[in-house]
Predict the structure.
Amino acid sequence: MRPDPATRLRWFILRHRTGLTVWLVAVLLALVPLAVRNPYQLGLLNLIGIYAVAVLGLNLFIGYAGQISLGHAGFFGLGAYGSALLTVHGWLTPWPALLLTAALVAVLALFLGLPTLRLHGHYLAMATLGFNYIVHLVLVQWDAVTGGPSGISGIPPLGVAGFTFDTELRFFYLVWGGVLLGVTACLNLMRSGVGRGLAALAQDEVAAATLGVHVRREKVRVFVLSAVFAAVAGSLYAHYYHYVNPDGFSIFKSLDLVIMVVVGGLGSVWGTLLGVMVVTLLPYYLEFLEAYFDLIHGLVLVLILMFLPQGLVTGLWDHLRLTWARRRVAGRGEAS
Amino acid sequence: MNGWTDLVQFLFAGITAGAIYALVALGFGVVHNTMGIVNFTQVDFVSLGGMLLYSALSAGGLPAPAAVAAAVAGVTLIGALVEILGVRPSRSESHLVLIFLTIGLSIILRGLMKLIWGKNRLAVPPLAGESVWTLGGATILTQTVWIVVLTALAIVALRWFFRHTDLGLAMRAVATNETAAAVVGLKVWRVKAASFALAGALGGLAGALITPITTLAYDVGVLLGLKGFAAAILGGFGSFPGAIVGGLILGLLESLAAGYLSSAYKDVLAFVVLMGVLFVRPRGLMG
């Protein structure tokens, strides 16, 4: 006997819930510009989209694989400057520049990751921080190439066959399309064997190795992948603002990216979007508190880590699921 | 100036910077040994040392030696408070959480300093005014002599503290085995607060000594502190002789490189050394 259509629909939704969520979010995002017409607000959403691409990668590395990086603003900066340099001098058009930059950053991340990822905890934190500091200082000091503190301007926008993404609205669709691709990639990766391996090594490297996870190789691979995410976000940043300077790529920006990961929740893909949104919008909506801003950032980070060490979204979600499960168990107890 | 006086000048600059890095590296080491974490607020202890010195001199009107003592005492107290209010309540064992936690605390301290003292650069007069010594044709600020002497005294005092006081011995016991220390009745929580206080004292002293001859702002400790960390890694993280040797080597390398190679990339050197050591020999020279 075939089950009735309502049951089959329920099964379908249950089985495809991840994919359906992505489609639902895609539709909602496509409709956003109907509600948000103000270019300033669209601009904020675009900025959130750019950071979301970088933080998705960083969350894979920090939240999912349990490693520490305080240097991803360095990769972000290299992506931005790579695209800027390649296109401003007319060597390449924007898309090939983006791809070449991402490939170069991947190679760099590989060479950086091979020796660095043998390290644990604070050593890894400091090695990545050191890398970021070097990148930032070179961007400031190497005047002849990077334009020094004043940066590079006149970067052309991205385009496809004569259609350029040069307005807030057009770029909105481009960047959020990119975010959805990134989200899908992360969700699929997490449910693959490689993703399960990463989650295992985050818990216990020795146990993961005994179960056949090639710990070192997987760590380097996820590091390179997260660096590529950051580099692509950097390229988008350069082509969106048409201008780059070293300010946005210092070690403090790396700390901001980490705060976004922690607010979103360690290892939570959807939480990442929320974390980026909260941290990016906070300064705009609490402008009157500007003087207290560092303080608020620090307090947010410290309080979340104290009370929900898994991060805000993941922590609250786990808490909710636990409460529901308890209630279900209690309900069953009464029924029997 | 000839080559010889140049060299003397560079060597003195290197030893001065090296002494400061050594103090910061010792601060990192003290907390790491008792608590097993890297305390990112160490960099802010350095800024705080300078800031409190500034306030003690200008608002408090204290004479210079008393102002330095007051600044160091103030940062010592703040160090203990950071541990009691910030680190202790988390009760986490995860490296990831603890590292991010001290980063958060460091951001809070910088935010507070920015609120209290503002964003602008401040000026603090050197301990002995602008007087200079001449040695072999090179002129040396009296402050640099003070830095070297006081750092040496601090190191001697630290050595005595760890060998001959109850608290110092308790800290070494906790560093060796926390559970065993608790079993024999040592109050581990008090030792942990004390290690943060000691780290505060070392960082505060470094800040109070160096800011008069460099510059003072709420974030001045970040660079100095991270270089101090690089020195600690170079010498061997957690090793006290390593911290001193690492600090001096890094200070000298930096000043010689700035003098003979390029001053634009002077600040990169510490991080190149840091990464080089981590790549080749993560336990450092004496670790």
